[in-house]
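Quick entry between incubations.
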Amino acid sequence: MSCVMSSTIAQWSLSFSLVCLADLEFDYINPYDSASRINSVVLPEFIIQGVLCVFYLLTRHWFMSLLCLPYLFYNFQLYSKRQHLVDVTEIFNLLNWEKKKRLFKLAYIILNLFLTIFWLKLIVNMNNSMPSSQRFIIHVLDSTHLFVQPHVEQMIRSAIAEFRNQNSYEKPT
Amino acid sequence: MGTENQGYPNFPARPPPPSSSSPFASAPPPGGAQTVGFRPPSSQPTRPFTPSGPPMAPPPVGVMRPGQSPFVSQIPGSRPPPPAYGGPPGGGGGGGGGSFQRFPAPPPPFPGSQNPPLSGPPATQTLAGHLSPPMSLRPQQPMGPGGYASPPGPGFQQPVPPVNPSYSGVAGPQPSFPGYPSNQAPPVSFQSSSQGPRPTYPPQTGGFGQHPGQQNLHPSYAPPTSNVQGLAEDFNSLSLSNIPGSLEPGLDPSSFPRPLDGDVEPNSFAEMYPMNCHSRYLRLTTSAIPSSQSLASRWHLPLGAVVCPLAEAPEGEEVPLVDFGSSGIIRCRRCRTYMNPYVTFTDSGRKWRCNICSMLNDVPGEYFSHLDATGRRMDMDQRPELTQGSVDFIAPTEYMVRPPMPPTYFFLIDVSFSATKSGMLEVAAQTIKSCLDNLPGYPRTQIGFITYDSTLHFYNLKSSLSQPQMMVVSDLDDIFIPLPDDLLVNLSESRNVVEAFLDGLPLMFQDNVNVESAFGPAVKAAFMVMNQLGGKLLIFQNSLPSLGAGRLKLRGDDPRVYGTEKEYTLRVAEDNFYKQMAADCTKFQIAINVYAFSDKYTDIASLGTLAKYTGGQVYYYPGFQSSIHGDKLRHELARDLTRETAWESVLRIRCGKGIRCSSYHGNFMLRSADLLALPAVDCDKAYAVQLALEETLLTTPTVYFQVALLYPLNKLRYTASCGERRIRVHTAIAPVVTDLGEMYRQADTGSIVSVYARLAIEKTLSAKLDDARNAIQQKIVKALREYRNLHSVQHRLGSRLIYPESLKFLPLYGLAICKSTPLHGGPADASLDERSAAGFTMMALPVKKLLKLLYPSLFRVDEWLLKPSADHDDLKDVLRRMPLAAESLDSRGLYIYDDGFRLVLWFGRMLSPDIAKCLLGADFAAELSRVTLQEQENGMSKKLMRLIKKVRENDPSYHPMCLLVRQGEQPREGFLLLRNLIDDQMGGSTGYVDWMLQLHRQVQQNA
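Done. Structure below.
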């Protein structure tokens, strides 16, 4: 749950700075305001992203935490070089680059989010595809937990295994 | 100086000479054209061989380059055998002197030979034919027998040099320049002329019009004449055939194009569109705009322009003032374009169509005028905005955020130990005082002062006081303003107090031994005082900021940083304080000019940031001594204070549909994507802009550009205008073309070089110097390669390096950029501060000034000084520029090297002591680094001072300081002059020849 939340916050801060940049480009906002607004969300975004990564580690989602590492590393590098804040004097020259950077980050986070809730989605879909009498989900707790009828556990496991098999590739011998 | 044009192989379509020997373009250089006494001081300054020559000219013993055999026959067999050549072979080999004597009666063939070109318009290829008479040497050219062509320089075939006066000064009778090509040429030419048949032979225009065939400068590439006659080649070329292997022997550097005329603007275009604004305001890099993105991408040179919105107009060409009165300024409703000569009126004068966005607008009633039969407005002639490309509109109040503020000058003066010791404080105080009368905006002008060392000193200048009151603030962490007002006062009211303050300032701190500098807090304090009004902040800084916010460290003394990826960090502001401060200042319309004086490291890179983003400027006087630099500071500070300045202005460039400005380069800050905020702008500042095509295909036949500068004008006193809003509008049109060749033809080297220089300097802020230099080289290579590809289909190019006429100087200027102070060499070649200061300066320079800095002028004056009759102002005659090569320097001469920022007087080792004595007075034998040039009581000295004064007046924006150096006075000579000889190879840097070879090799490699 918290993963989803932090992803969402990071997403929000990225979109916010993207909007600021776009506004700047179309002259709805002056560079001073734009830069100060963007800079005010840069550090929160970095922190949230770090927290997210730590969460994945703590909950032993190794794959997801690995996926987060490059992003974290990039942020760290920017920070240590003191280049994480946008520079108001050069903001127009860097506009395109800043936008691109944030778009990539946004895509990254969305992918993250999607992967996090993927299995849930799979099960929910399965549930929805069944006739209403056979639906088995009792309650969705959060993005990673849900209550189901006891008898379907085996079915869900096999469905997931099957999905995995379908999507993995074995070298033909 | 018209003659110099002829020196280049510019002129493609020339009638071929009757004789078939045209390939031997080796126009013999005009030997010792211009030695004093060598020729009567008549009106034929460049006439090469007057009979009196021989006696005067000692046999140039050293004329030959050591290894150079008389007829160095690098000339491959491909050339036709030389025409009958009766000349003594020794003419070439034996040395110039001898040969001179051999040709005793040259005058007939050279009647008034080179005079006409002098008056001829510069760079007019089309005139070639008409001017043919002057080409005294022309007759000989065709004869230039293969073998003889060479003597001038081994293996060099040189179509033009003879005409080039700058060579003439050096050539001939001056033994000290062994190996200088022209030395031996005269004999050849004479020989041939004396042979009789040729003198009458007109069409071959040696330097002037270049026969196509003669574009091959190298003998080894001598296409059959017929071939040459067949096609009029559209380009110039240099043959660099012996590229692999030995470079030296085959090439004559003197044949390479050099901008000895200074900046020649392409004027054909201005004639085509007379209603365009003058090129001093707006110069496009090419006057032909590509019609498609693909075409634009094949044009590897920058597509852009250099804008100098307030350039000084000469008398009589001032920008007209237009007042629309009650109807308000007429602009397009959609794109906000201002009324300009290119709008069209329709619907019998009731509507007008915007030329930029083609929107149909209503003509306001007050502005209505009937159209005549051709669709022109009847009142066209009374409306400057409809006939001229540059106009000033008087803007109504809604054009400004706030009413024009009074012009404000605030001075932030370092009074630490070094400032008082160097005399800076005194000079600055005096200069400010002397300028008080001329500050713009009287009677509204505001003025204020803060001085600082380790504490800040504020001054209460209230008009009721008789003496200024000083308040000291020593808490640097929490700056506060001790007095709410009276720190910034009206100059006319508090005049007495201000004067008392300035008088007392040097005395007040003369015993100050404080060496600290609380620069950052001082700037902050000034910001707090000024932010209501905006204005100009002048900072006089003498040492590295050491206290408070924005304190800086000594950096750059670690040699290990150089050459690594981190190198660039030394060239950008170290502390973010500076960028932030600059941004805040711009926001509050404060322009900062930084004057730096220290002989030690001051971190100009950081300080200059303040100027860069506030539209200011950096003045750097390393090791300031009032006795040496005092004059310079006085003039430049006075200029800075009194020139017409526009405060809190904004600049926007509108382009026609499909084109937009993609980036801007210069000292300013962008307020929005296309709006330049300029807290202060004046006539000495130019901005470069790059253009990009937005649409893949431009459908209109022309594109318009409109530069609009909105500024409140504070006139100089006497006009007593209390701030008027004005909009200066420059409009230009350029045709859209589909042909790459046309783009190259219409290219403007000056503008391109300007953009390149700025790009290169910006690159040094994020990359190594090497990378920046390579980038320039690569760009030029790409452009030349594209051009080559364009022509390689139709023409046999062989191994020639070809380039369009319009870009003939581009390679040289490229080299000059690489050798300019911000970019040249390694860490040891220039201090960090010098680099940064030069970088900041160059970012703001207008085109002409920049070109002069890149390729300074060098001219010889001793002959002129000795000439008795030179009372009239024959400056044109004197200021003939020579190539910047050591070969141009004769040890018996006195030369002036002028790059617009300093004048270096170079005294040859063998310069007659009389001259030195006359000019320097009693000091003439002393070490020249300690001598300053002062007017002596004799004609020669006065004459020289007059010349220097003239040179300075030509361009008042900076005050070139006079430096004296004697030949062989190392390392000063190398530092001041030799290093700046662009054409030469100096310690690791590339010479002109090598540079061309490199370019050529790279062009060919990937062709």
